[in-house]
Write a structure and sequence with these properties.
The protein is mostly helical. Helix content is 41%, strand content 0%. Helix 1 runs antiparallel to helix 2. It is elongated, with a radius of gyration of 30 Å.
Amino acid sequence: MENIVLTVHLIIALCLIGIVLIQRSEGGGLGIGGGGGGSMSGRPGVTALGKLTWVFGIGFVITSITLTVIAAQNATGGSVLDGGNLLPPASNEAPAGDILLPPTGDDAPLTPPPIE
């Protein structure tokens, strides 16, 4: 069930993105430049794209809430850290071959190359 709702959610999200990108800007996006009166008086007429945007938006919210409820029902109520050993067992042995250090060829300490 969760996979079906998630698939529908992703399809609705892609459709919502496409519908919003198809619509042309009416100017004054986010209220910029829409200050007192001017040429814009009243609300613009609702178009088919506007109605479709509302439908996809409502569907997106409904599927989001549904996925949240499903995830809450499937939750175990415990923490990831309560699950067990997340760290490897501690040992006093050095890693085989000192794989983090470059090979030196002898037991001399590592020194930087001389400046010439």
